[in-house]
Amino acid sequence: MEAEARSADLQLPEVAVKLCARCIRFTKDWEAQAVRLWEERIGTKENKQYEAELG
């Protein structure tokens, strides 16, 4: 995945629609990895604690 660094120049703010579009692409790229990592943690102490906090 190519880095898409943006300027922090407040005079040229990024359009929200473009920012959202980049985020959606990023999440689709990482969805399979996130699912795999989540499934690896099922049953772990950290996962049980997180689920307890959610209620």
Summary of the model, kept short:
The chain is an all-alpha fold and 55 residues long. The protein has helices at residues 16-41, 45-54.
Descriptive report:
By secondary structure, the chain is mainly alpha-helical. It contains two helices and no strands. The longest helix has 26 residues, at about 15-40. It starts with 15 loop residues before the first helix and ends with a helix. The mean pLDDT is about 80.
Helix- and strand-based class? Answer: mainly alpha
Give the end-to-end Cα distance, rounded to a whole number of Å: 36 Å
Query: Are there runs of 5+ residues with pLDDT below 50, and where?
Result: none
Note the main sheet. Answer: none
Radius of gyration: 17 Å
What overall form do the CA principal axes indicate? elongated
* Topology pattern, helix = H, strand = E: HH
Secondary structure layout:
Layout: H1 16-41, H2 45-54
Features:
55 residues; mainly alpha; 2 helices; 0% strand
